[in-house]
Amino acid sequence: xxxxxxxxxxxxxxxxxxxxxxxxxxxxxxxxxxxxxxxxxxxxxxxxxxxxxxxxxxxxxxxxxxxxxxxxxxxxxxxxxxxxxxxxxxxxxxxxxxxxxxxxxxxxxxxxxxxxxxxxxxxxxxxxxxxxxxxxxxxxxxxxxxxxxxxxxxxxxxxxxxxxxxxxxxxxxxxxxxxxxxxxxxxxxxxxxxxxxxxxxxxxxxxxxxxxxxxxxxxxxxxxxxxxxxxxxxxxxxxxxxxxxxxxxxxxxxxxxxxxxxxxxxxxxxxxxxxxxxxxxxxxxxxxxxxxxxxxxxxxxxxxxxxxxxxxxxxxxxxxxxxxxxxxxxxxxxxxxxxxxxxxxxxxxxxxxxxxxxxxxxxxxxx
Length: 367
Ligand code: M6R
Hints:
- Catalyzes the first step in hexosamine metabolism, converting fructose-6P into glucosamine-6P using glutamine as a nitrogen source.
- This is Glutamine--fructose-6-phosphate aminotransferase [isomerizing].
- It is a single chain.
- With about 375 residues, the protein is an alpha/beta fold.
- Helix content is about 45%, strand content about 15%.
- It has 13 helices and 10 strands.
- The protein has helices spanning about 10-15, 15-25, 45-50, 60-75, 85-90, 110-120, 135-140, 160-180, 185-205, 210-220, 235-250, 285-295, 330-350, and strands at about 50-55, 80-85, 100-105, 125-130, 145, 225-230, 250-255, 275-280, 300-305, 320-325.
- The strands form 2 sheets. A 5-stranded parallel sheet has the order 2-1-3-4-5, with helices on both faces. Strands 7-6-8-9-10 form a 5-stranded parallel sheet, with helices on both faces.
- α11 (about 235-250) links the parallel β6 and β7.
- Bound molecules: 5-amino-5-deoxy-1-O-phosphono-D-mannitol.
- The site of 5-amino-5-deoxy-1-O-phosphono-D-mannitol (M6R) has 16 residues, from α4 and α11.
């Protein structure tokens, strides 16, 4: 049942090209634009005129939402608010008929996410669910559903469902941009074409093997603390990488917007602290590189995830893992892969059960 892999998590990491491809397949099959299919009560007119989007989710699903926020705001120019579902439900949120509330839940059964969505719906908002499980509770509570098609995920650590959620958020962002005319037609076409190329690039990255990541894991698996840094679209990837590592290896991690370093977290660093930087190409790469320099002069050990072909990081990082180039906004789908593998290899070196980490359940149906 593990298809020849030593764990479900490793199998599921390797199923990511398919998870993305299945999620975008027929939705981008039309010559132009994005077809989200039947979203129930959520029609094109509503999406065209929507004034605000609020995303509620927990854990890894929240990180997928954060990536979606950058895409929706940049491409479709709709303001997006994000909240952790367990916080949202208790903060008496201002939400109403002009809002689209997007609840992201792999399992479709997370108690806090369901409660946040119900609260929004009772206040008059239109609610869209993004889930991987047909017939789950969230599909009954929402006005419309956008399914991710990652297939059943057994490992407690979400991997393939995460990339499928990110792909679904990109589709939503592109559809909104199409309806609202916020992107030139040629740019929209180019982004869709690039998104369709991503599964192939993820497959190439996985086929290359992870000797580089394994070497990094061997060097650092006894560390007591890992810091993760990113900026812009790289920040949610850093957050997700840090969650993966702490969840399955039980190593303390922190993830920060790199620009926040000097406002506190830099005090944590000493000689050899591993600092993982999501440094794929982007308009803020230079800014990130200055943050990396600040870290490095404190003696930290910099591990950078960078875009293949960009040699700029060579002189700034101790170790580099390259990922295939794509449109910079889509890079999270590639950059997250080495971080999942790093968490995986570290946890295995520590002799841990990655599929069933301590204290965690796959589905959190209690508050
Ligand atoms: O099923 P959901 O997407 O609603 O679950 C949310 C979180 O519990 C989940 O993403 C959790 O953080 C994962 N174990 C992370 O790997």
